[in-house]
Amino acid sequence: DIVNSDPVFAGATDAGYGKLPGTEGSTYAAWVTAKESRAQMVYVGGNDGLLHGFDATTGVERLAYVPNAVYANLATLTARSYSHRYYVDGAPSVGDIHDGSRWRTLLVGTLGAGGRSVFGLDVSDPASFGAGQVLWEYTDADLGEGVRQALIVRTHDSAHPWVVLFGNGYNGTSGNAVLYALDAISGTQLAKIVLPVTGSNGLATPVDWDADGVEKLAALQDALKLDPKQPLAQYVMLSRRADKALDTAALRQPTALEEKTPRNVERALFDQPLGEEERLAFEKKQDALRHEAGQ
């Protein structure tokens, strides 16, 4: 069954990356055109242990993938004493990335309540999906359950321009609230920051947003009480001229964290153009979160 995994569409969408400088920007329109000749897909995780990829036009399943973290539990599905459990319960994210030589479509999947790993797949051409398109699977001692969805973003770091961001979920063994940044192509951990909160904590999905990063970088440092010597703080410093922000209010975490986070702080990190509809949707979500928090 499908419980908490939201389906995501992957097709001939234009993310606006034609505005990027250099080869990335100049070749993006051709990539969007090329995607039109490939299967338009819908991806969703299931509690049968699989990430499923369905043809968006016909509904026919074109691919399926079993993450390594749930493989050992597949036998439970046929046990006579079986009771429901979660497997690939998180919501996948899909986005275009440039690997330095060509454009590709990346899918980042999470397990939600089903396990403690995040994985990356190359779904550029569903018709040719195979073992070679399994890029990486990441796990860490601080990862908990309930990692819902990851962000795929473009940064100003020339060494790692495309990055995957996600929180560590809940019920981790350490009780820490952690934000991760991975290289989108290799899955290499670029940054891991443990937020300065005590007790039993966790971190949900962050929200990114366009802003002027030069002025607001100091606000980010202050809001999270970052030590400049910590890896994520150093990584943020590499992105001084970026104009993508992380929404403070959307980090819907324990009160202890919210008390340490000033309201209406825009956290400038990343460069990914957004349209007016996305801006309005963001503002609506931000207002709803503040209303929920009684702010």
Protein described:
It is a single chain. The protein has 295 residues and is of the alpha+beta class. The chain is 21% helix and 25% strand. The chain contains six helices and 15 strands. It has helices at 22-35, 68-71, 213-224, 231-238, 255-260, 276-293; strands at 8-10, 41-45, 51-55, 61-65, 93-98, 103-110, 118-122, 134-138, 151-154, 162-167, 178-183, 189-194, 208-210, 244-247, 266-268. The longest helix is centred in the last third of the chain and has 18 residues, at 276-293.
The total of helices stands at 6
SSE ordering? EHEEEHEEEEEEEEEHHEHEH
> How much helical structure, as a percent, in the residues?
10-25%
Classification by helices and strands: alpha+beta
Tell me the number of strands: 15
Mean pLDDT: 76
| Order of the strands making up the biggest sheet | 1-2-3-4
Main β sheet profile: 4 strands, antiparallel
Choose one word for the global shape: globular
* Percent of sequence in beta strands: 25-35%
Instruction: Report how far the terminal alpha carbons are from each other.
Output: 37 Å
Q: Which stretches are poorly predicted, pLDDT < 50 over at least 5 residues?
A: 210-275
The Cα radius of gyration reads: 19 Å
